[in-house]
Specification:
Helix content: 40-55%
Protein name: CRP-like cAMP-binding protein
Radius of gyration: 19 Å
Number of domains: 2
Strand order of the largest sheet: 1-8-3-6
CATH topology of the largest domain: Jelly Rolls
CATH architecture of the largest domain: Sandwich
Number of helices: 9
Structural class: alpha+beta
Keywords: DNA-binding, Transcription, Transcription regulation
Organism: Paracoccus versutus
GO molecular function: DNA binding; DNA-binding transcription factor activity
Order of helices and strands: HHEEEEEEHEEHHHEHHEEH
Number of strands: 11
Largest sheet: 4 strands, antiparallel
Amino acid sequence: MNAPLPEAVKKSVLLNGLAPEVRDKLLKDAQRRSYREGETIFLQGDPARAVFIVLNGFIKLSRLTPGGSEAVVAILGRNRSFAEAMALRGTPYPVSAEAVSDCTVLQIDGARLRQLLLENQEFAIGLLASTFVHLQGLVDQIEKLKAHTGVQRVAQFLADLSDAVAGPAEVRLPYNKRLIAGHLGMQPESLSRAFARLRQHGVEVEADKATIADIAELRMLAMD
């Protein structure tokens, strides 16, 4: 890899803690790849030959159900990695990956990943940590689907878009509302109803912008 690696990516779960020489060895043949919104990175069932780290933008991981509908598994943003387990095992990708905004990813060769895993205990621990992050994310997602109402899920989603602790806030929706609904396990019409109900809590959504009167109140609503 010729271009300097962004400092923030070095702190991703996959690369964090690696000695510079180990990281450089892993990324020797890594490639930056850019995708436009809507482009496919790989399809469910394709051979898993690479691991990816999101440098910017958002990636959707999804599966086709037996009935032919799409189930959104995850939406991943900057510094998140994906496809580690499949590349290690050499099994087909169990999901499809699609750019849901213009984005750039770092593509790491799966064979190099497997070789380094055998050679370096430090990297093996980092890879386990990365896999755990994915697992924890799925557990959190299942918990929210089962224990939280649709309004609470939407409130949490909006609150997570801001670093503000209290007071007014304005956030931009990172991708379209249909995808937000799929990510939150809702139908688009249910998402619209949730947005409408949030008005009484000081939230106004217009196009791709949400204006929040008091983000602390919104966070409390999400946790109730």
